[in-house]
């Protein structure tokens, strides 16, 4: 159960009374519930109990009785509910999805974004390099001798180029 703490405006989540469980006690709400609507125990035993209760309610004419949290809900919940109406009436999603199902899509989008950034970075580096070459070429002067030998005169050195 997740709630917003009205005092400090932060999300609060049920800890399943971790401190009580560490001391061999049942969660406080299960122990205090006067109608035993909240039950705690071994999951298989609780499922058996819930299914028996659904059968009992349906045999009494409550055809909408169902367990929310069986295998049809994200593979089965370890905390499930006996409902007698649509899940939305209780503030529960009718077709919940595990957040982890979004991870492959998000991961793929991140990889594509990273690849695009990498390509842009390479293009930027190449452009800077080509701009550098162009600037050097503008400053250089090639003179060609009578034998066809070309001499490259740059601002720093005179070097002979082996191109005819
Ligand atoms: S009392 Fe119940 S709802 Fe509150 S923390 Fe314990 S188990 Fe969770």
Q: Output the CATH topology of the largest domain.
A: Alpha-Beta Plaits
Structural class: alpha+beta
How many domain regions? 2
Strand order of the largest sheet: 5-6-7
Largest sheet: 3 strands, antiparallel
Overall average residue pLDDT: 85
Q: What's the CATH C level of the largest domain?
A: Alpha Beta
Q: Give the termini separation.
A: 82 Å
- Low-confidence runs: none
The number of strands is 7
How would you briefly describe this protein structure?
The protein is 39% helix and 16% strand. It is an alpha+beta fold and 164 residues long. Strand 6 and strand 7 form a beta hairpin.
Question: What does this molecule look like?
Answer:
The chain is α+β, with helices and mostly antiparallel strands. It folds into 2 domains: 2-98, Alpha-Beta Plaits; 102-161. It has helices at residues 18-22, 28-32, 43-59, 103-139; strands spanning 2-5, 10-13, 66-68, 81-83, 141-144, 150-153, 158-161. Helix content is 39%, strand content 16%. It has a 3-stranded antiparallel sheet. Strands 1-2 form a two-stranded antiparallel ribbon. A two-stranded antiparallel sheet has the order 3-4. The chain has 4 helices and 7 strands; from the N terminus they run ββαααββαβββ. Bound molecules: iron/sulfur cluster. Iron/sulfur cluster (SF4) binds next to helix 2.
Index terms:
164 residues; Alpha-Beta Plaits; alpha+beta; 39% helix; 2 domains; binds iron/sulfur cluster; 3-stranded antiparallel sheet; two-stranded antiparallel ribbon
Question: Topology of this structure?
Answer:
Blueprint: E1 2-5, E2 10-13, H1 18-22, H2 28-32, H3 43-59, E3 66-68, E4 81-83, H4 103-139, E5 141-144, E6 150-153, E7 158-161
Antiparallel strand pairs: 1-2, 3-4, 5-6, 6-7
Bound molecules: iron/sulfur cluster.
